[in-house]
Amino acid sequence: MSIRTGLIAIAVASVITVSPSFASDGLDLAKKSGCLACHSIENKVVGPAWKDVSEKYKGDAKAKASLITKVASGGKGTWTEITGGVPMPPYSPRVSDADIETLVDFILAL
Ligand code: HEC
What we know:
By secondary structure, the chain is mainly alpha-helical. It has one domain: Orthogonal Bundle (Cytochrome Bc1 Complex, Chain D, domain 2). It has helices at about 5-20, 20-35, 50-55, 65-75, 80-85, 95-110. Helix 2 packs across helix 6 (about 95-110) and helix 4 packs across helix 6. The longest helix is centred in the N-terminal third of the chain and has 16 residues, at about 5-20. The model has no long low-confidence stretch (mean pLDDT about 90). Bound molecules: heme C (HEC). Heme C binds near residues 34 and 53.
């Protein structure tokens, strides 16, 4: 392989690795916003596993709005059996409304 083709191959490979998929965008945003201190996709940490959240609200048309409110304003009581009653902290205005919506869409799509 010539140096030139080598460089092109590297350039193409890096475009592929950084090209944002919805999943890695959502996860990056969750990481940046501090959510992953208490949540993971697959497992309960302090809060419920996000896969379980998605499962719980499958087919519930009102879930998106109610989860946006929950992430923005915090709350407790929904997952007490799993969390022992620890509250979900409020994230507005630390995290913008647009980012909260992106996070909720990401979680519900899991
Ligand atoms: C300090 C720990 C903590 C952090 C940080 C945290 N959460 Fe939570 N989260 C919880 C707990 C505990 C619950 C369960 C609350 C309950 O029982 O109603 C929860 C519940 C949730 C739920 C389900 C709510 C419901 O009513 O079913 C969603 C969605 C959620 N969190 C998203 C997020 C997002 C997005 C972030 C980051 C912006 C975040 N959480 C950061 C602890 C946390």
